[in-house]
Amino acid sequence: MRLDVPADVPAADRLGRVHLVGIGGAGLSGIARLLLARGVQVSGSDGQESATLDALRAAGATVHVGHDAAHLGDLGPGDTLVVSAAIPEGNPEYVEADLRGLRVLSRAAAMASLMDGFRVVAVAGTHGKTTTTSLLTVALQESGLDPTYTIGGDLSATGVNAARGSGDLFVAEADESDGAFLAYRPFGAVVTNIEADHLDHWADGAAYARAFDVFAGHVDPGGFLVACVDDPGAAALAGRAAAWGLRVVTVSTRPGADVGPDVLDGVTLWSPGDHFLADALAAYAAGVELGADPDDLRRGLAAYAGTKRRMEAKGEAGGVRVYDSYAHHPTEIAGDVAAARALAGEGRVVVAYQPHLVSRTRLFGAAMGEALGAADEVVVCDVYVSREEPDPEVTGALVADAVPLAPGHVVFVPDLDDVPAAVAARARPGDLVLTLGAGSVTEIGPRVLELLGGGRA
Questions:
Q1: 234, 176 in Cβ contact below 8 A?
Q2: What does the alpha-carbon distance between residue 335 and residue 325 come to, in Å, rounded to a whole number?
Q3: Is 361 helix (H, G, I), strand (E, B) or coil?
């Protein structure tokens, strides 16, 4: 129900006062920041305190911890409630909003409201969309185009995941996990890759892939699609979209595409790895299509300093460097472990991995384990449960048992509190520790640093 976008959804400055349930999440916090930047009165609630909530309060939002009907204050008809997909319909604020006759919008509808009047570039894909959106944003800023942007992670350069620009461009990370990207009508689109995921929402891999066809079909006829043809799914989409008559620009880390790695000759990117190069090429191609100067784009890509939770350096202690990354799909794991290997040089790679979602672990647990086999030492946590009920038969042991390392080099540690010690015991000077996963494993890095000697980034 919440993915429906009413045909008459008002522009953001006509939403009245806006209350966001789940305001601390990556999606709704960005929406809140953009609403505040437009002078909209914003309130919201979230399940727990966080640095994000503090930042939103500092920006002018009224934010509560916990959920209670009283948090809606005196909001009434003409005002708006925005709900995260993770919020159940029995949530007291959701119920109260319905009783009061508030306009209720999904995350997707609220984002579509913010996009009204802009030339939108939507960046989609199973992997790499946060990094590609970030790279495109920074490159366009260097080009003087100053886009409004919303990203699924905080840019290192700005410390925030969304900001209002001065131009007519809006760069948006387009999330396919619950179909939100189907609500957008972009001028241009980027598709990094298409590989089955989020099958807790989509019926199967074919349904997931078809959604990208619908997404591409929403691109303005006078606009463009950038597709990375290193990936078979994106390459197939590029062919179909070109047959529809849409302008398609292909990018590849290998020769033969419209845009290849030669356009970035002399540019040192923030992280090694072909998947990061592919993201940079996609950002460059989209920037060119938007009229940016190629030299400015190259300078912007070279200046990019990363995004929180995407191969983010956390610090060094005892001669051990610690990084954190969001990878939670086998392909993402393989890419980030390869990047860690390049960064480690002669040192070893020690990985702490937390599977994310019961459904994903059930389907891809063995493949996750196989991808982790490229590390030297692996500590597997238990499954981070979100949006689903736990299943005693689906645990991190499914992943650990599939890691093709010799006995003693992989261990399943169910309790997250025990993981830092297990990682620190395996790390030695010269090694690189990489914490991987979309859940609470991000908390492990600082604790490992403390155990190794108290170093900080």
A1: no
A2: 11
A3: helix
